[in-house]
Amino acid sequence: MRVLVTGGAGFIGSHLVQRLLDREDQVHVVDDFNDFYEPQRKWDNLAEVRDRPGFSLHQGDIRDADFIEGVFAQARPEIVAHAAARAGVRPSLLQADLYTDVNVRGTGVLLEAAHRWSVQHVVFLSSSSVYGNDSAAPFREDAAADRLASPYGATKRMGELLAHVYQDLYGLPVTALRLFTVYGPRCRPDLAVHKFSRLIVEGAPLPVYGDGSALRDFTYVDDIVEGIVRAMDRPQGFEIINLGCHRPVRVLELISMLEERLGTPAQRDFQPPQAGDVTMTWADVTKAQRLLGWRPTTPLELGLDRWCEWFLSQRSLEVKR
């Protein structure tokens, strides 16, 4: 299968690329290696796959229609997994124009190319952020999702709506996967599990916004990748499907679990609640089980064991350098 993965040098994208190469797909990666975090981390994410048969890299911006046209002409993808985006709730409050430009206009450029090149299926990586604060828990895909709490969440919802238009107009099969708080090896440095781990081992103050009672549905990256691959292989017109662990934990509980595994106490620094943050994420995964035969298999305890082992090994390598 010929697969185009946008954002393929990022956290989730690089894990997906590795999985697709393992099953001998022809994988074309698009990434602009922007400076949202240190670009070298993204190059490192691809270190193990760049020389593998079937791998091709195209460095460029998804908003550049001519660049994307050239990629599609060369790759002739049968499936597109669209993971490229400006990510993060809090940064989107400061750069709403950029988030809209990349996440909405860039998605439009990609969908237009997928339509023109008769792609068999587009899998769009959306976010639990589309549920905002007003959805009943656990979050179901048929919730209204019209009271967004951040520009980031709004751009992901707009991407879903735009994808639905392309399915209605042109019959382009699109599956939008709403991902819930993904963590694991190669996790972005701004995400809670990574950020908390770094602050704990450095003995630095760890900001806890509000009283720490916010619930998050932490989902291990291998489970997410399994769900993405299953969705890729099952085009179903237009569908929105949650991928989450279905077991939310409080932020303070997560910190305690990390303290135990890292062997160091955290310096909790309680701060006022942050604008844009939601009080809860909690996935109803009934639809994923029904349509994809998917369910999460990695409990948080095991996932954090694996994360901390990887994180500490990377810290050790950095010290040796």
Provide a descriptive summary of the structure in words:
The chain has a domain at 2-182 and 219-245 and 282-297: Rossmann fold, CATH 3.40.50. It has eleven helices and 13 strands. 44% of the residues are buried. The strands form four sheets. The chain has a seven-stranded parallel β-sheet, with helices on both faces. Strands 7-10 form a two-stranded parallel sheet. With 321 residues, it is of the alpha/beta class. The mean pLDDT is 95.
Tell me what portion of residues adopts beta-strand conformation.
15-25%
Q: Write down the oligomeric state.
A: single chain
CATH superfamily membership of the domain at 2-182 and 219-245 and 282-297, which one? Answer: NAD(P)-binding Rossmann-like Domain
Which shape, going by the Cα principal axes?
Answer: globular
Q: Which H/E pattern describes the elements?
A: EHEHEHEHHEHEEHEEEHEEHEHH
Give the radius of gyration.
19 Å
Task: Report the strand count.
Answer: 13
Q: Span from first to last CA?
A: 39 Å
In CATH terms, what is the architecture of the domain at 2-182 and 219-245 and 282-297? 3-Layer(aba) Sandwich
The CATH C-level name of the domain at 2-182 and 219-245 and 282-297 is Alpha Beta
Largest sheet: 7 strands, parallel
Low-confidence stretches: none
Q: Strand order of the main beta sheet, please?
A: 3-2-1-4-5-6-11
Number of helices: 11
| CATH topology heading of the domain at 2-182 and 219-245 and 282-297 | Rossmann fold
Give the averaged pLDDT, no decimals: 95
Helix fraction by DSSP (H/I, runs of at least 4) = 40-55%
